[in-house]
Amino acid sequence: MEKIESIIKNTKEENVDKVNWTKAWSSKYPILKTYQKEVNIEKYAQELRKILKDLQDEYGYSNLDSMLVLKDILYHEYKNSKRG
C-alpha cells in the first residue's frame, strides 16, 4: 500500500489529466466498457452537477474539491451498503 500511496502522491496533475481512467479501470471492472450504451447518462449527470454546485455554493469548494468530496461520499455509501 505504501508504494501505491507514494505513486499517487508523486504523480503530477498534468499526467493525471492524460490518463483515460475509464479505459484503465475497465480491465478490472468491465461494466465501465458498456454502461455508456445502456445508461441514461444525462439524467444522472444533471443530478450530479446540481450536487457539485451545492457543495461549491455551501462550502466554498472548488470544482475539483467538490468532485473529490462527492466521490468520497459515494464510495463510503457503497462500502456501508455492502455491510448492511
Keywords:
84 residues, mainly alpha, globular
What would a concise description of this structure say?
With 84 residues, the protein is mostly helical. The chain has helices at residues 2-10, 13-18, 21-26, 31-34, 41-59, 63-83. The mean pLDDT is 93.
Describe this structure in words.
There is one protein chain. The chain has 84 residues and is mainly α. It has one domain (20-83). The protein is 77% helix and 0% strand. The relative contact order is 0.05. The mean pLDDT is 93.
Return the structural class. mainly alpha
Which blocks of ≥5 consecutive residues have pLDDT under 50?
A: none
List the secondary-structure elements in sequence, H or E: HHHHHH
Largest sheet: none
The whole-angstrom Rg is 15 Å
Average pLDDT taken over every residue: 93
Number of helices: 6
Q: Termini distance?
A: 27 Å
The coarse silhouette is globular
Write the layout of secondary structure elements.
Elements: H1 2-10, H2 13-18, H3 21-26, H4 31-34, H5 41-59, H6 63-83
Helix pairs in contact: 5-6
